[in-house]
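lol ok so funny story. i was supposed to be doing the assay writeup but got distracted and ended up predicting the structure for this chain instead. priorities right. anyway since i did it might as well share w the group, maybe its usefull for someone
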Amino acid sequence: MSRRFAGLVVTLALALSAPAFAQDDAVQSGAGAVLRGLDKVNGETRDIEITSGETGAVFGLDIALGDCRYPLDNPTGDAFAYLTIWDRGAAQAVFEGWMVASSPALNALDHSRYDIWVLRCITS
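and the output, tada:
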């Protein structure tokens, strides 16, 4: 699947789901996000907490969190976060966009060694 097609699918999925949230005003921004990283070479996983607007590091990646939003009726399962991810020391981002906790493969990081996904927003 091409990146352009994958981006279109993600955009359409978020656009179709957004009106339900917008009508109820049931989406809220969290203080930050809990992410999980996987090193595919050695199988090691690490969880990281990042505050909105800040950058954190896991394995060989730097991760900036723009926002983490969640529906008020399901704050842990349906979180979605806007992430920008770089290889440490690189100027070009390897990922920028929304990741959805309940569907991590919908818009995933495409990296040869590492995987990152959203677990939940920090709600308090």
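The helical segments are 3-24. Residues 3-24 form the longest helix (22 residues).
back to the writeup now i swear
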